[in-house]
């Protein structure tokens, strides 16, 4: 089974943390959209219900078979709509502590992964998911644990995992349209 996760196109959040805010996407780069569309393999299509994910799916000429609420981005609580430069520096935290850290009123990466991973584990055929950077990292955490937080996940990038039985393997991470 092949799982292809495409992060939505750049969000129009004005450089602020988007998280659960339902902001639109900039899907105007037709060449990048076409390059990524050509990389997608047939299969079922699932999307986060976020506007930016639905717009990206439409730009890719994908019609989701379903919208899956569990795939929403991490709830950043009080950090939603904040300039990233104003957030505390969590860089010194070891990966496991970073994964457990909750923004005030939000959820931790571990909390988010606990709702995303069960959805991924129920998939039974090749699937394309249009979702968020957090969704991609949650999928990667099935293979590398909390170290998944160290992966860069660019807008409109593709990450591919394969599953044989219960074992997941990473095939590709952060394939950008220009790669």
From TrEMBL:
InterPro entries: His_Pase_superF_clade-1 (IPR013078), His_PPase_superfam (IPR029033). Pfam families: His_Phos_1 (PF00300). SMART domains: PGAM. It comes from the Bacteria. This is Histidine phosphatase family protein.
């Amino acid at each position: 089974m092949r799982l292809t996760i495409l992060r939505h196109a750049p969000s129009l959040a004005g450089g602020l943390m988007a998280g659960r805010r339902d902001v639109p996407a900039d899907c105007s780069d037709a060449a990048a959209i076409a390059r990524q569309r050509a990389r997608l393999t047939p299969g079922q299509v699932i999307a986060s219900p976020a506007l930016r994910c639905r717009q990206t799916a439409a730009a890719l000429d994908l019609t989701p078979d379903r919208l899956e609420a569990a795939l929403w981005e991490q709830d950043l609580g009080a950090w939603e709509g904040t300039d990233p430069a104003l957030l505390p520096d969590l860089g010194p935290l070891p990966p496991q502590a970073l994964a457990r850290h909750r923004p005030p009123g939000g959820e931790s990466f571990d909390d988010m992964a606990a709702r995303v991973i069960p959805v991924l584990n129920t998939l039974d055929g090749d699937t394309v998911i249009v979702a968020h950077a957090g969704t991609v990292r949650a999928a990667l955490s099935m293979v590398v644990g909390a170290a998944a937080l160290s992966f860069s996940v660019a807008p409109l990038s593709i990450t591919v995992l394969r599953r044989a039985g219960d074992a997941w393997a990473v095939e590709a991470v952060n394939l950008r349209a220009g790669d």
